[in-house]
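Q: Here's a chain of 143 amino acids. Please give me its 3D structure as tokens.
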Amino acid sequence: MTIRSILDSKGRDVVTMSSTENLASAIRTLGQHRIGAVVISDGGGRIGGILSERDVVRALANKGAAALDMPISAVMTTKVQTCSESATVHGVMEQMTAGRFRHLPVEEKGVLVGLISIGDVVKRRIQEVEREAEDIKAYIATV
């Protein structure tokens, strides 16, 4: 099972913001869309960073309310791990677990094409396991 199958079912829309917008604006965007991360892109679909709820908490812990006026570029994660649509669900689950992050941009040829969460990956993996169990039951019933 590949990441393409997840994107095909959940959609490929990704909320993006410019790195020059301030943290307060990013927090409003996260809340309005009920999401845990926003991809930072200053044009052309190129990924410049990602801002997650963890980045927001760290900024507020370090700078207090003054962080709200800071540009996203000052608090975002710049070393963004990505995957391709052809990546496997199992491989991405390992990547996200090892890196301890919950959101993974999907890119093809250096351009953002989607975003998956650990929830998307776990949901798909559970579906795989349930299907495998049904296949085994069906096989056993025919033996």
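Q: Can you summarize the key feature?
A: The mean pLDDT is 94.
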